[in-house]
Amino acid sequence: MMKKILLAIGVLVALVLIGAGTAMGMATHKINKTYDYVALPNITRDSSPEGIARGEQVFRAVCGECHAGGGNTKPVGGRMFDFPAELGTFYSANITSDMEKGVGGWTDQEIARMVINGIDKNHHFRPMPPFPNMGDKDIAAVIGFMRSGHPDFAPEKAQPPRSELTPPGRMAFAFAMGINDKGRTEPVPVPVKAADSVEYGRYLASSVYDCTFCHSPGLESSAVKMQHPETLLSGGFEFDLVPLGGEGKLLSPNITMSETAGIGKWTLDEFKHAMVTGVTPGGFILRPPMPKYRYADDVELTALYTFLRSVKANDKAVPPPTGGRPKAEPSADPEKMFSSLGCATCHAPGKAFEAKLQGAKGKAPEEVAKWIRNPESFKPGTQMPTYESLIDENNALALAKFVLGKTGGTVSEGTAP
Ligand code: HEC
Ligand code: HEC
Ligand code: HEC
């Protein structure tokens, strides 16, 4: 998703810079070549309870965003609509522990190399944006979680097709993003985890959660963007909302500590609240592709904030998205609430989670109202924001009845949950 614009522009750059014919041949060669010289990193699973817990944090916020899409928590893979069609048809892979269709037959080191280099078990390049600077310990933790026996990784037979790159797509991956064929021979450390550590916050923001990539302008990798403090985290990276089920364009916001253009007025608690629930202090709903960091703990969120405070404040304002931002202004009219609270951006006909509303079908309005205020308590890690602080129980109930009307069922009053 996040690499999308990078890819699109990369194509243009590649086409202009290099004679199209030769370049195409070179790109195809780079994509199809056997990377048997890329060393396996010396990383094996961390199966300690702390390792597994850490692995779950990273997996849910990072890997799960692509491998377990559409509100699914099982990483069975599937079509990724947020990659641009000009570059190909993209599918993330089944990475459950199935021996044949999943990664049950891969060694830990093979999974680690896939994460670092994007090179698979059979030494082939796969079109996944890799994590070249994620620390050994965090990769070991992710693999520990994947191998922990957690039910989400139970073998599944799903087999999404392989992604198919168009010629421009091949050019983009081969040249604009580049294929990282340098095997990791030296361990990459994870900085000491502490709330007041700028370094730990910087590591999370640039090498794990990639805030720096989505929230800085331009198409380069996070590592390159980190070298440009004058624009770092000042927003303006362009997302197309249409493939995500929305309308128009969305520029990522400036998240430097500028008081006028960024989040300089946000307190630490407001920041934490927005990151976890998807609701900003001004009552705006944060939509995908902004992930929710429900698994991040207090120390991580504080370290991120500490790091953001250390970044040069940038007063350049980013224009608001087409059609404005969905704002939480609860009213007694459920139809109005459905659009003002941003429910429609996910659940209206044609939007990304239209079908998910059907999950409420046949349930009691009281139960649905509880879901609406706190979906996290029913489904950890869900993309749906937490509305608890924005709507009271009465408004939630009105909304629940309205939503049940949309599921096609009759809304019975006072059914026991
Ligand atoms: C931006 C989306 C995205 C993210 C984030 C992502 N992946 Fe992937 N992953 C993909 C795509 C796309 C493929 C390749 C599918 C193909 O080759 O058609 C893939 C392939 C894989 C494969 C190869 C599976 C196979 O059966 O061949 C593994 C293993 C994998 N990813 C693990 C991970 C892990 C672990 C993480 C988190 C550290 C992660 N991925 C994060 C999109 C993503
Ligand atoms: C895949 C891209 C992506 C990643 C990764 C990402 N963001 Fe965002 N972020 C967005 C987009 C897009 C929005 C705007 C969403 C909207 O308005 O609906 C946003 C909104 C925000 C906002 C709200 C700003 C405001 O003025 O309302 C904050 C704060 C934020 N992100 C912080 C972060 C941090 C910190 C990280 C890393 C831990 C991060 N984001 C990672 C894309 C991303
Ligand atoms: C950012 C996208 C998003 C927004 C905004 C959103 N939802 Fe959801 N909603 C989801 C997803 C995803 C699911 C499916 C749950 C899952 O699998 O994670 C869901 C599920 C539901 C369900 C089904 C519950 C069940 O029992 O299965 C209801 C009802 C619902 N949402 C109502 C609402 C209402 C009302 C609002 C606005 C107040 C809203 N949603 C806003 C993404 C969203």
Describe this structure in words.
A hairpin with an 8-residue loop joins strand 5 and strand 6. With 417 residues, this protein is mainly alpha-helical. The protein contains 15 helices and 6 strands. The model is unreliable at 1-8 and 410-417 (pLDDT under 50). It is globular and about 65 Å long. A two-stranded antiparallel ribbon has the order 1-3. The longest helix has 19 residues, at 49-67. The protein has 3 domains: 4-178, no CATH class; 198-310, no CATH class; 334-406, Cytochrome Bc1 Complex, Chain D, domain 2, CATH 1.10.760. Helix 2 (20-32) crosses helix 6, helix 7 (198-208) packs across helix 11 (298-310) and helix 12 crosses helix 15 (393-406). The structure holds heme C (3 copies). One heme C binds next to helix 8. One heme C is lined by residues 1, 62-63, 65-67, 90-93, 95, 103, 111, 114-115, 120, 126-129, 131, 142, 162-163.
Bound molecules: heme C
Euclidean distance between termini CA atoms: 38 Å
Q: β content, as a range?
A: under 5%
Task: Provide the succession of SSEs.
Answer: HHHEEEHHEHHHHEEHHHHHH
Total helical segments = 15
Structural class estimated from helices and strands: mainly alpha
- Dominant shape: globular
Secondary structure blueprint with pairings:
Blueprint: H1 4-17, H2 20-32, H3 49-67, E1 78-79, E2 88-89, E3 91-92, H4 108-117, H5 136-146, E4 164-165, H6 167-178, H7 198-208, H8 211-214, H9 222-225, E5 238-240, E6 249-251, H10 268-277, H11 298-310, H12 334-340, H13 343-347, H14 365-373, H15 393-406
Helix pairs in contact: 1-6, 2-6, 3-5, 7-11, 10-11, 12-15, 14-15
Bound molecules: heme C (3 copies).
